[in-house]
Design brief:
This protein is α+β, with helices and mostly antiparallel strands. Bound molecules: histidyl-adenosine monophosphate (HAM).
């Protein structure tokens, strides 16, 4: 146990870090281009926020939350998703007082007690965004386009948006009543979970993974799209027209239900043939009021970063190795340690990467290490070099070697960076 991480978690290190950093950089640059501001909210919140926000009938709240009592007997929960916390922060900090819609994005770890498998962890990471304060369908289209754009910028291709409308408090009750009327007589054919869903949230049956979807198909369960009220219908049509104008590839999926209860109207998932769902989101016009804020419409999405990275690897192979080391300083004699450290600091402060051995290895082993690290140059410093006031500098690619004054190494690296030969 002591040397084993908990199931469903990962250590991210070594060559994986370059890929994570690259994804994070794409995320920051893309949201900057769309003029979003970053927000960082706590990793844990009051349990009630998720019960109210995410919804008591969702799998997340029913089965997947990491909930605990702290030493003051407060019930806290590790966030299973980012939206509820961002909305809480929006209300608590009165971000609605600023003019215009709030456009916020985030990156961070999320926690769900799920059965781990490829692309499904218990601690995973999302980046995502929320736009609060506009019900304009142009925002829906822009946010969906942004969801695809950020993944395209990370080199992911072949993505499709599956689009649906889940209606609103005006049209959903009617659809719900129609669903119940069709399904009630066949309730015994549904799994125990869906029998409960039938009373509490029948739309969720479309998301069942235990065969209830076949029952729905057989009984011709009504599609929410047929039940939409005129306003929801118009909203969806406007979103679709704008997605077409923006050349965002989408397909309608009338059976798409997301795993969270806060959605109203637009809901979507971005899928890839190799992997399934990479990200998803939707509009949530009732959530801000639900957590105690002013009646404010909202919309957003989140992408699973592990899944984006997995897809990138499936499409392009392993991430290329980190850029190599500019300089390795080999210390041939302990008397040269101070001079070596001065050289290392000068080179690093000039913006180059430089390293040395810390384990007292012999010169031959140090040169081997420099080679393994892919160093461009090696500067050898020993008693002779100190006496001459110059380091022996070796170009690791050509094997060429020459003396360079102690304070001339930075200059040499600059000239090499400009394309000169040693
Ligand atoms: P979600 O669909 O629950 O939505 O999660 C979004 C994405 O997070 C998924 O598409 C998936 O890539 C990733 N994800 C979810 N669970 C796991 C897991 N156990 N392991 C690895 N990746 C996972 C939300 O979380 C909403 N907050 C999105 C949103 C923002 N809606 C409006 N605003």
């Amino acid at each position: 146990m002591l040397t084993q991480r908990p199931r469903g978690t990962a250590d991210i290190y070594g060559s994986a870090i370059a890929a994570w950093r690259a994804l994070e950089e794409v995320v920051h640059a893309t949201f900057r281009a769309y003029h979003y501001e970053e927000i960082r909210t706590p990793v844990f919140e009051h349990t009630e926020l998720f019960e109210r926000g995410v919804g008591e009938t969702t799998d997340i709240v029913e089965k997947e939350m990491y909930t605990f009592l702290d030493r003051g007997e407060r019930s806290l929960t590790l966030r299973p998703e980012g939206t509820a916390g961002v909305v809480r922060a929006y209300v608590e900090n009165k971000l609605y007082a600023a003019p215009g819609a709030a456009k916020l994005y985030y990156i961070g770890p999320m926690f769900r007690y799920e059965k781990p498998q490829k692309g499904r962890e218990r601690q995973f990471h999302q980046f995502g965004c929320e736009v609060l304060g506009s019900d304009d369908p142009a925002v829906d289209a822009e946010v969906i386009a942004l969801n695809v754009d950020v993944l395209n910028r990370f080199g992911l291709a072949g993505l499709t948006v599956e689009l649906n409308s889940v209606g609103c408090p005006v049209c959903r009750p009617e659809h719900r009543a129609r669903m119940v009327a069709v399904l009630k007589p066949a309730a015994h054919r549904l799994c125990p979970d869906c029998q409960r869903r039938l009373d509490r949230n029948p739309l969720r049956i479309f998301d069942c993974k235990r065969g209830c979807r076949e029952v729905l198909a057989e009984l011709h369960a009504p599609s929410i799209l047929d039940a939409l009220c005129p306003d929801c219908r118009q909203h969806l049509a406007a979103v679709e027209a704008l997605l077409t104008a923006l050349a965002v590839p989408y397909v309608r999926n009338p059976h798409l239900v997301r795993g969270l209860d806060y959605y109203t109207r637009t809901a979507w998932e971005v899928t890839a043939p190799e992997l399934g769902t990479v990200g998803g989101g939707g509009r949530y016009n009732g959530l801000v009021a639900e957590v105690g804020g002013p009646d404010t419409p909202g919309i957003g999405f989140a992408v699973g970063m592990e899944r984006a990275l997995l897809l990138r690897e499936l499409q392009h192979g392993p991430w290329p190795a980190e850029p190599r080391l500019d300089l390795f300083v080999a210390v041939a004699d302990p008397s040269a340690t101070a001079a070596a450290m001065q050289m290392l600091q000068a080179v690093r402060q000039a913006g180059f990467t430089a390293d040395r051995d810390y384990q007292g290895r012999g010169l031959k082993a140090q040169l081997k290490q420099a080679d393994r690290l892919g160093a461009r140059l090696v500067a050898i410093l020993g008693g002779d070099e100190l006496a001459r006031g110059a380091a022996t500098v070796k170009d690791m690619a050509s094997g060429e070697q020459r003396d360079v004054p102690m304070d001339g190494v930075v200059d040499l690296l600059r000239r090499l960076a400009d394309g000169a030969q040693i």
